[in-house]
Specification:
22% of the residues lie in helices and 26% in strands. The chain is α+β, with helices and mostly antiparallel strands and 417 residues long. The strands form four sheets. Strands 11, 12, 13, 14, 15, 16, 17, 18, 19 and 20 form a ten-stranded antiparallel beta sheet that branches. A five-stranded antiparallel beta sheet has the order 4-5-9-7-8. It has a three-stranded parallel beta sheet with strand order 1-3-2, with helices on one face. The longest helix has 15 residues, at 344-358. The chain binds flavin-adenine dinucleotide. Flavin-adenine dinucleotide (FAD) binds next to strand 2, helix 3 and strand 9.
């Protein structure tokens, strides 16, 4: 079994596709190591195990709206697209989405998956409660306000198999996507905040070459379908006939130049289409937004080294949060993303140049993507790491949910109680 990108082959000898919480509990209680697996969209060995992989993707969603609390709860393996379809039917919305609706909610929140927006936290910040099966097969619930909640959401699968989630919802809203082309690099570097703050959600697509960045996608929150939009963004011109070919050669992206309910225009990719060929590798680094211009300058200087292997880069923003392992913990962040040609040796070869360029800005790599940073350099940037290590060893003293990748990533000791 491989991941979506095809760059990881899982070594786990067994996979259980659970259709009920009871089945998950039995799977965990039967002994041996376990890792939860979602839609396999991660690009590294985080989800692998030498024991049993447990998937909750096949559990029926079983949506439950609590209008008074402003929340929806459902089975954790449900994909964002299915959640969005349900919410749109009920006139409701999430605050944000990632680039594609195909990923499972449990997998996304476990790794701090994000969309874009200077005022928008990552997808895990919408979580209000979780139910998870811990070691021994016990089922427990943890909710916002409980002691260890801030460590239990972006938890990399370290605390157990999440079976149900409760997310904050809000009334539905319209998002209009527009593409602006050829923003001059000096304009971007002079005021990154003006560009990334120009709409509810902004994505900057670039190949680091030339004098301009290729496209800026503004996802504006508008009050009506015919609300007019500006033709100029700091010297970049709106192209009403732009296509999404910069991220995809085939027709699988959400509509440009029109306003639609959030679920149809906040993700880049449509639920009813394959997101892309899957023939790629991804890397991404989060730096404090206050250092955005310097970080971009530093990476751009390395472009001759890495550009030959790059398909496209994307800049997004994430608002600071207080989740212990969130890449945006305590920092309003700029996320600098690289979609690479599917050539692992070449990618591993060029990443150190990018990481060295970013080193002065204390970068945090995306937990689910490929990087070559020393674990210690990453962990120094997480002030709540000691609390997280303590939580993992308290919650899972036998190391049922541990694997080598996780231990290395979090600097966990390998002895178990
Ligand atoms: C085409 C593509 C686009 C992407 N776009 C974005 C993006 O816009 N923004 C972004 O931030 N990232 C993005 N990613 C990365 C992606 O969001 C993460 O890899 C995310 O973890 C995927 O969720 P998954 O269900 O596939 O998780 P998996 O890869 O299956 O697992 C990832 C982690 O989640 C844990 N996990 C999964 N299910 C559970 C569960 N039920 N209980 C406990 N832990 C669980 C696993 O143990 C593992 O540690 C993208 C990836 C791809 C391939």
């Amino acid at each position: 079994m491989q991941n979506w990108g095809g760059n990881v082959t899982f070594t786990a000898p067994a996979l259980i596709d659970a259709t009920s919480v009871a089945q998950v509990r039995r799977a965990v209680a039967s002994g041996g190591r376990v890792r939860a697996i979602g839609t396999r969209h991660s690009f590294n060995e985080l989800a692998d195990t030498d024991g049993t992989l447990v998937s909750v993707l096949d559990m029926p969603p079983d949506f439950h709206l609590d209008e008074h609390a402003g929340t929806v709860s459902f089975a954790a393996g449900t994909r964002y697209g299915a959640v969005a379809a349900y919410l749109v039917q009920h006139g409701l919305a999430l605050h944000n989405t990632g680039s594609l609706p195909h990923i499972s909610v449990a997998g996304a929140i476990a790794t701090g998956t994000h969309g874009s927006g200077v005022d928008l936290g990552n997808l895990a910040t919408a979580v209000r409660a979780l139910e998870l099966v811990g070691p021994g097969g016990d089922l427990r619930r943890i909710a916002a306000g409980d002691g260890d909640f801030a460590g239990s959401v972006v938890a990399l699968g370290s605390l157990g198999v999440v079976t149900r989630v409760t997310l904050a919802v809000q009334p539905s809203y319209l998002i209009r996507q527009d593409v602006y082309e050829h923003l001059p690099w000096p304009v971007l570097l002079a005021d990154v905040d003006a560009v990334v703050g120009a709409a509810y959600s902004v994505s900057v697509f670039l190949d680091w070459r030339g004098d301009t960045v290729r496209q800026v996608w503004l996802k504006r929150r508008v009050s009506s379908e015919d609300e007019p939009v500006a033709d100029d963004l700091l010297g970049a011109a709106r192209n009403p006939s732009a296509t999404a070919s910069i991220i995809s050669p085939i027709d699988n992206t959400t509509p440009l130049g029109v306003a639609r309910p959030w679920a149809f225009t906040l993700p880049h990719f449509r639920l009813d289409a394959t997101p892309s060929a899957g023939d790629e590798i991804q890397s991404e680094y989060f730096v404090p937004r206050e250092h955005a211009a310097d970080a971009l300058r530093a990476v751009r200087e390395q472009a001759p080294v890495f550009a030959p292997h790059l398909l496209i880069s994307e800049l997004r923003t994430v608002a600071a949060d207080d989740l212990w392992l969130s890449p945006a913990n305590g920092r309003d962040s700029l996320a600098i993303h690289f979609t690479w040609r599917n050539d692992t040796p070449a990618v591993l070869d060029v990443l150190p140049a990018i990481e060295a360029a970013l080193a002065p800005f204390a970068p945090r790599p995306h937990w689910a993507k490929v990087h070559t940073m020393a674990p210690q350099a990453v962990l120094e940037t997480y002030p709540d790491l000691p609390r997280m290590r303590d939580l993992i060893t308290r919650a899972d003293p036998q190391g049922v949910f541990r694997n080598e990748h996780l231990d290395r990533a979090l600097g966990l000791q390998r002895e178990f109680a």
